[in-house]
Design brief:
Length: 268
């Protein structure tokens, strides 16, 4: 049996070995990334801090009571069952935290689907329901998106979270994916690859199947959002002014017409 090397002559050698051999993101020259610290001890501390009862009503808000546990779960430091058991100690009946348990189940569902249908990870499961075909979307992500220098200030904030912290709130992940695919017409695969490069919880199943859901290749309709929606859920430090977020500042009817003009023709 092959054993993992444990002795290294220098810290640099260890980092080089980890980068080459282990499935771990080491960024910023090996420095800790963002607020999430590695290791079981830190994971157990974070697990003790979860607020599953508050989660139910606040989880869509950027500063809501989400757990930030996904990197630990992704890398096997915590199991979904560890999290479920801890959450159940906060209530007398499981129904009170049903939404939280459901979200854990989503992760399990994506993992099982991945095992059964590995082709789903990088191929369109269905056609886009946008009136556009696969070839209408660009292959590559534009540089302003990669750098967080888009014309949309609130999204630049979330791209900063992605690049600097390796963690993005679920709602913001949906906004970013929608912007990339529907507002900028880039293939979801390019966006999914970009997320996987930065996310500490980067996971082919949860990530790519969620991108397909937003794109509408694994759902009945494209997911879109507008500035009013961001304003409702964002924190005060995020710029949601109309002048700095123009392309989002429309009603849903207007956005549907602007983003999917051919869809109207198809449905007519
Ligand atoms: C475009 C897009 C890309 C995503 N990429 C990833 C990814 O690479 N890795 C990843 O783990 N999750 C991914 N998700 C799912 C979800 O956004 C994250 O699991 C969640 O934001 C992690 O933060 P948290 O631990 O604070 O979650 P919480 O809201 O506190 O949820 C607790 C746990 O439940 C699970 N969970 C919650 N929501 C979801 C969900 N919608 N789908 C699957 N599992 C969920 C996670 O394991 C999470 O840690 C993605 C979602 C979208 C829309």
């Amino acid at each position: 049996m092959k054993t993992v090397q444990k002795d290294f002559s220098s810290h640099k050698d260890l980092v080089t070995f980890a980068l080459q051999n282990l499935c771990v993101s080491v960024k910023n020259n090996g420095a800790d990334v963002g607020a999430i610290k590695g290791g079981r001890e830190e994971a157990l501390k974070a697990l003790k801090d979860i607020k599953p009862k508050d989660y139910v009503s606040t989880r869509n808000f950027i500063d809501g009571a989400v757990t930030w546990l996904s990197p630990y779960i992704r890398h096997g430091i915590l199991t979904l069952e560890d999290v479920r058991q801890e959450a159940l100690t906060h209530v007398d009946t499981p129904e009170k935290i049903e939404k939280f348990i459901q979200e854990l189940a989503w992760r399990e569902f994506w993992q099982r689907l991945y095992v059964q249908q590995p082709d789903y990870i990088w191929n369109n499961i269905e056609d886009y329901k946008t009136g556009l075909s696969h070839d209408d979307y660009a292959d590559e992500l534009q540089e302003d998106i990669r750098k967080g220098e888009t014309p949309v200030a609130c999204l630049n904030h979330f791209i900063g979270n992605l690049i600097n912290d390796g963690y993005v709130h679920n709602h913001a992940r949906m906004y970013l994916a929608s912007y990339v695919v529907h507002f900028r017409r880039v293939k979801w695969q390019a966006g999914a690859q970009w997320f996987l490069t930065h996310l500490l919880d980067g996971d082919p199943a949860s990530n790519n199947l969620s991108w397909q859901w937003v794109a509408s290749t694994f759902s009945n309709k494209p997911y879109i959002f507008n500035l009013d929606n961001v304003r409702k859920y964002a924190t005060d430090d995020i710029d949601t002014s109309s002048e700095n977020n123009e392309v989002l500042d429309y009603s849903y009817d207007e956005l549907n017409e602007r983003l999917f003009p051919k869809k109207g023709q198809i449905n007519a």
